[in-house]
Amino acid sequence: MGASEDWYEWHRPYDEPGSPLAARLAVVQRHITDWLDSRPGELLTCVSACAGQGRDLIGVLERRDDARRVRARLLETDPRNVAVAEAHIARAGLTGVEVLRADAGDLASYAGAIPADLLLFAGVLGNVTDADARTSVTAFRSLCATRGTVIWTRTRQPPDLTPAVRGWLADEGFEELTFEAPPNATFSVGVHRLTVPPRPLTVGRMFTFVR
Ligand SMILES: C[S@@+](CC[C@H](N)C(=O)[O-])C[C@H]1O[C@@H](n2cnc3c(N)ncnc32)[C@H](O)[C@@H]1O
Question: Which InterPro entries does this chain map to (predicted)?
Fold first, then answer.
């Protein structure tokens, strides 16, 4: 992948049954479902950074009759992916879900949408420098609500940053609910919950895509 990656085309393997990306999506969607089921009846907020076409969250909510209790903001820069997500949201009648064509690396893009009961960080940490990954994990504590959950993904291709990411999350007061690293794939999915008080949101950048 390069900084010139075509992020619309990147989504194509989602439509290939058995592809690693389709497998990863199934894991992320299962954890979104578990999160919803763990908080029955509550009004919940969600933010998805670098949401792409939003297949994870939209794909879950469109199948649920309690989708209206979720208010969500998807942040995505590629206009084609924004259009796909918006069309999918409209088809599914998800009135509480918005897509902003905005820079998810800029903390200002989260104003009005946080604190998040669920922060989705799928397909981000593998596309930024290690330093930006660390900065992002620090910022999670400002983006999440009390007891907020983060679902994140990261390739484990060498050099595998996931041990460091998990350590940083622990340092920031997140407990690990699960970390899935299928032996037959290189992706991994982590689910962490904030156990300490959130920090006030600051201004500035979390990350810039480099891959
Ligand atoms: C690897 S894809 C992941 C998409 C989605 N989260 C998923 O897992 O299906 C990364 C996405 O981030 C978007 N992106 C890249 N830099 C961004 C930024 N600074 N702010 C928002 N979106 C960005 C790309 O257009 C692309 O759709």
Answer: SAM-dependent_MTases_sf
